[in-house]
Amino acid sequence: MSALEYDDSSSLHLFSLSSLGNLLNDPDVEGAQLDFDELGSVGASAEKDIKLYFNPSLHSAGIVCGNSKSASNTFIKRIIKSHLRLADARVLILHTDNENPIPTACPLASDFADQGCKTYISPRRPFSISQLYANSGSPSNGLVESLSFKEEDISIKHVLQFFTPDPYITASLTNSREKNRVSSTITHILSQISEPFDLVRFNELIGEEKWDEEGETHVAIRQTLLTSLISALAGTEFEEDGRGAIKFSAVTLIDLTDPILHALRVDTVLMDMVLTAFLSQTAKSPKLIALNNSHEYLGFGSSFERSIAHLSSDRHTKRMSLLLSTPDPSSITQEAWNALDYVACTGAASSAWSEMLRRHLSVQEKFASSNSLDIGSFGPGEVCIIPARGFNVPKDYGENSPWCTRIAAQELNRTTTLLSKRVVDTNTTADNVQGPKGAWKGLPWAQIAQPFVPRRSDPPENLLPPASPPFISAPARSPSPPLKHTSTSKVQVDNSTQAMPPSMNLDAFPVPFRPLVSGILILSSGKLDTLVDYLELRTQVGNNRVVKAMGWGSFTQLVREAAAAGYVDHLVRKGFDRVRLRKDPFAGPGWNGTTGLSNAQASRSPPPVPIDPMWYPSNYQKLMTAVVSLNRGVVHTRINFEDVRSLIGKKAEIKKMGWATFTSWVDAAQDKGYIRTGGSESKWIILLPFNRNT
User: What superkingdom does the record give (predicted)?
Assistant: First the structure.
């Protein structure tokens, strides 16, 4: 049997022009063929087994063209199986299927279930995708986890890429100045954080910045995604069960099919993070990286594409091979071509592939007139294998030389029929290769902005021992955009509709804390001392406008103040962020402004009922809401006059309520005995005790 043979009885011929030594990541291997038995057939001749043979005298990438994904998947499967014959070999398969109207599970997950293939999906864990693998019937369906990392394994570089607006996403931030401001602000924040990355500190600094509405949405949704990436079980006994941060088995599949990740273009950053972790954890192992449907995420200029381009320079020293599968040749950049060992492409009959193959087909001119092997014509969509880069043609070139060196001088038309024997000049440059056009294929921004709550199952409660006194920490998350946008006129909580324990009176809490307490009670079904998720609580309370209308700078500040007051416990462990209402929220340091008692003297009984702005006449309620919010409902406490004015809003809003100016409104409230004002250079306002007889 010659060095390279093919079976012409099948309707689809599969060859690879990569050397056997390169395939096995061992330059000393001198074999001429690999016989893949019991791997199934390809094409119409289902009874016949197709065998792959590798030519050890050539060192260029093999391109496999076919008209169906099943043929491409078969080729990928065989390359992976050959790679797994090496000791301690590792295979990483990256996959998305966002452009498919009905996404499907990657078939390679079940193909390599017997090798312990582990599958990771989007950190958002889309229900439709998780169900695809759960219903696949393969032994690996119990090994499907949400992608997560240890906090210390997340680099500053990737965090910066995560938040920096993608230049191709014009719908993300419409204002170029805002794009630059977001980028510079995130860079400034990260410059204050030393490695290893500290998510708690990062989110704290994010909360201290001021964003406009567009920038806030951009940052919040990415902040939520980043937080969901942190493994709550990393470093615990449960990590051994495979529920912690990502670990790579013999075959690891990463399926990031998720319209939100794809629309935001953060899927490419996640791919790059996975690649970094894979190279780090498998430094001494022979590696194969398979990029399936690469056109969906190997975008020109992305962080992942730059990493792939860098690997092309030293991939052999790292004992690594790259395989790419795509129906879109325009998505393969020049840098990617330089790094690849194998390309599996479907739709070979398209003119796009014909042009791409011409640009990457080259052979020395003196061999162009040599006799070529008459293999007949290929039918539409059938296959021909050619090298992606230049040949190292053997010196003893002749009639007995491998078939691939003789057929390489021929070009393909759009039906992949052999037409001529002329040499094609393919000295392409980066300018000749068309990268992705960056077209926005995402959802409407309003739909993208909808929040999500990671549906990862909660770990056992013994991971978080009770904290007493309260464990007070900066939050590990910042709010994501809420499902509902509550107006500022509805800040007050309707007590009649909320689930309350019989002994708990929401009115016992200061007004500014009531929405937070109510949200905790709703999520915990009215149970005290029950942990609720920080993100779910943030969504329940409302967006930043609602929080600021209550007098808080941010939701972060609200939770921090509630913890300092002793009403709640805020617990953060390795990205695991929970809040709970204490069993006796009035036992510890708390709100005691009306009693004048110190923390040590504070009574264990609830404080007197605080002032509710709804008690005042309707034309004073907005003013009193601002005053009560700023002084936390504590009487005889000075607050800045201008702060109240800022919270009220513009002059037009004041006039709508029947007042000529803000000052006349305040003076009228003082005449009524609701407040008192003073100060010359810096005016202040004091809330007076409410008199129902006024």
Answer: Eukaryota
